[in-house]
Amino acid sequence: MEVLDIEYHTFTKHLTNCTITPDYEYFQLNTEISFVVEANAGYTFNIDPNLFVRGRYITPIKINNEKYQFTFETDDTSTTYILTAYASIIDVVSERYGVLQLYKISNTELESLQNERFINTALQSIVDINQYFASIKFLFVNTENTENEHIRIERVICDTTSRKVLNDFQDYDLGTVLLAGEYNNELDKQYSTIKISLSYLGTIDISPIYANEYIHIIIRVHFISGYSTVFVYHKIDDKEYLIDTLNAKIGFDLPYINTVDGTHHNIDVKQDDYTQLTPPKIIMTVQKKSDSPIYSTQKYSRLGDEQGYFRVDYINIDNTSIPQQHKAEIQQLLQLGCYA
Amino acid sequence: MICTFYTCNDNNTKITKTLLNPVEKNLKIRNSLDFDDPILLLSFNPLTQNLNYAKIENIYYFIKNADIYRNRLYKVSLHIDVLMTYADYIKSLTGNITTSENPNRDFVNTDMSTSTITKEFALNDIFDHTGKIYLTTVFNT
Fold it and tell me: Are residues A227 and A333 in the same domain?
């Protein structure tokens, strides 16, 4: 702060995720002042910035959700101007649905919200905020959220604070797994069953042809509906091919009462559905084979490359220096089976 | 004509056999020789000396049996081992293998048991097992 030899108005700024232009440090007396408050990239003003002076607020002009302009004239008696501007991360939920807001709320916050359930407003005599509940879900996933903010319901800004969920969809990566079989060959594909066990979501049976292959699993959760979709990909080199999906609820509705339409929103879950608390995993069951190390197969190869026992289909021997009866005996022995 | 006797412990159907304990004898041809099934008259019984295999020139033979022929003389019957005799040529052949200890990874089958082996592959546990409450509200600006 520079030292002024004139009287001036003190300007106190409480800025979060935003800037002002020009960046005044004080206001001269009897001067027309104009500045713009602008949210940083990726942020927006969910609550209008305000400028407080002498017990009143100076209303800004809203240019858009990310920019507000203040224009006013200072008077001749020095005082303090306080600017408060709080920009939040752009909220995909309200951007997408316009009228919906999604909160990750604790049980104590929910209790606090119910304590202020009937709110007296200027526009309506009493508002039952429960009638503006779209849903309350109990879901078995966590997600990113904002810092605590006052919960907004209809036109009411409640005293209760909670954390907003920024995006109603989120993807969860369960990882990429090599389904290594027992034999590392076709036998694993012929004699296996493969089941993906996904805790609360149930199971997916996938074809055993994916034995000895890489599988990548992603779960996409929609927090408003409580539904999730499991995507199972077959990964080959850097490419992924969708091979199966599963739609399942990842939690359940909590009961609440809407007094306006008299609807009782009851719990919609059987407890049995959520007793499967084992961590997610893939279970592969492979049949044991006989002790014999000898396999039926089909391959066209040089006999000198064989190791151990092998049999050959009819093989043509065109070496003229080998007597005919020797050729026949060799052919017969190779068809009956030889050791390399 | 040199005949070398050996001990061979390999299966008769092994193409390249391991031959042990070579014993060389110089033989004379009395009659015309049947190269596929020659008969040797020897002063010893090779089978009692654990010599069950023979090589004459570049031809390999199994010793089938040895009978007493006359006093102190044994009649030893041989049969050609075509696999060992033509081993290098056989190994150079290319053919359709229908059974093998080293099967084609993509075309293989064998007798299977009804008992099973179970394998588990852990996935990232992305679930919040205590659960979270999500409230969706309608708001009006």
Answer: no
